[in-house]
Design a protein that fits this description.
Blueprint lengths: L39 E2 L8 E2 L29 E12 L5 E8 L6 E6 L6 H12 L9 E4 L5 H10 L3 E4 L4 H15 L31 E8 H12 L4 E3 L16 E8 L3 H8 L4 E7 L4 E6 L3 E7 L4 H15 L4 E7 L9 E6 L7
Parallel strand pairs: 3-6, 6-7, 9-15, 10-14
Antiparallel strand pairs: 1-8, 2-8, 3-4, 4-5, 8-10, 11-12, 12-13, 14-15
Helix pairs in contact: 1-2
Protein name: PsaB RNA binding protein
InterPro entries: Tab2-like, Tab2-like_C, Tab2-like_N
GO molecular function, one term: RNA binding
Length: 365
């Protein structure tokens, strides 16, 4: 399904076959230049791969204003995907009760909708009516699915979306709406006369321990790698054009528009003789981030809202710990931006899956 990528092939430098628990080599933040057609290996010219690095898949990928003093509607919805947030804001009404807000946008923020709600109207029926008003606009298109990241609101949001014939998708791939909320904290809420520090509800994800990865979803090797941002964006065009499995997002909508095109973006590449079906299964996940867990000596794949999976492992020693820590430091240096790729083997010109990810904290409100 995925053709050879030629000049944009994802080829790793020299690799070594290793056992499942073999250690990777050391990360070096400043790396020598290699061909743009290749991954840049995190260790200087000697990146090693992990045998049977476990690859998860659990099933992924890429306001009309009503009685509200929120920002007005921006355009009408045309996208197949929405991102939604429905939660209380740090605002108090005349009764001293928290004001709630509905935010809806598409991943590109071509469409935006906001509406405030009194806390006496927080239910699926009111939410459904708000969405029906949006969809009733001339030229509005019904999206196929809508992502949301607050698990505590899952019942209300899922019911309202289902009643509107929209698939509800719990997911932290809500990069656009989360960035929008952080932006509104300073530009909208704090300048609203109703703003109150006492009304802030700190939001935290409830993340449990990682689960074991199903055998059918494991790769055969994996490696830490990195690519110049410009090269990565070019490769992601294959995802946008539907030529390979994967997911992407606009850097500007996630607040990353100032990253230079030559900056190195860290990633993980997984190799498998079953690369095509593996990429297809992985695309069924709502992949949020990949993390190098030094304490557990393994990669952690975070999906959905709070699912976590043991994605690969290494034998702990000074070199492997140094590489894992260096990879996480590299990720922090680019505001959490990173990627996951799937291809048949280190020498293959074929790329079967590519996902752009951002390891970021959810909004604090």
């Amino acid at each position: 399904m995925s053709p050879a990528l030629g000049a944009q092939r994802l080829v790793a430098p020299r690799t070594h076959s290793r056992s499942l628990l073999s250690p990777p080599s050391v990360v070096q933040p400043n790396l020598p230049t290699v061909r743009a057609a290749q991954y840049r290996a995190l260790p200087s010219g000697q990146r090693r791969t992990q045998r049977r690095g476990q690859v998860v898949a659990h099933t992924s990928d890429t306001a009309v204003q009503q009685a509200s003093t929120s920002t007005p509607c921006k355009a009408v919805p045309k996208s197949t995907v929405w991102e939604i947030d429905f939660c209380s804001r740090p605002l108090l009404d005349e009764r001293g009760k928290k004001v709630w807000e509905l935010l809806i946008c598409d991943p590109e923020r071509n469409f935006e909708y906001s509406e405030y709600f009194p806390n006496s109207k927080i239910n699926s029926a009111e939410l459904k009516r708000a969405m029906e008003r949006i969809l009733a606009q001339p030229g509005a298109l019904r999206p196929e699915k809508a992502r949301f990241f607050r698990s505590q609101m899952q019942t209300i949001i899922t019911k309202a979306l289902t009643d509107c014939q929209i698939k509800a998708v719990p997911s932290r791939r809500c990069f656009t709406v989360m960035s929008w909320i952080n932006e509104r904290l300073d530009t909208v809420y704090k300048v609203d006369p109703r703003y109150s520090d006492k009304a802030q509800s700190l939001f935290q994800l409830d993340l449990g321990p990682p689960e074991a990865l199903p055998d059918a979803l494991r790769g055969e090797q994996w490696a830490f790698v990195q690519l110049p941002l410009g090269t990565l964006i070019q490769m992601l065009k294959k995802v946008q054009e539907g030529e390979i499995f994967g997911g992407t997002f606009l850097l500007a909508t996630a607040g990353l528009q100032d990253l230079p095109m030559d900056i190195l973006i860290p990633g993980v590449v997984v190799f498998s003789r079953r690369a095509l079906p593996l990429a297809a299964w992985t695309n069924g996940l709502e992949i949020a981030a990949v993390k190098a867990d030094v304490q557990r000596s393994c990669l952690i794949l975070e999906t959905g809202v709070n699912q976590r999976w043991k994605y690969g492992s290494w034998r702990p020693n000074e070199d492997s710990i140094g590489e894992a820590e260096g990879w996480e430091i590299a990720k922090e240096g680019v505001s959490g931006l990173h990627f996951l790729a799937v291809q048949p083997d280190p020498d293959s010109e074929e790329l079967n899956g590519l996902w752009l990810l951002q390891d970021c904290e959810p909004p604090s409100i």
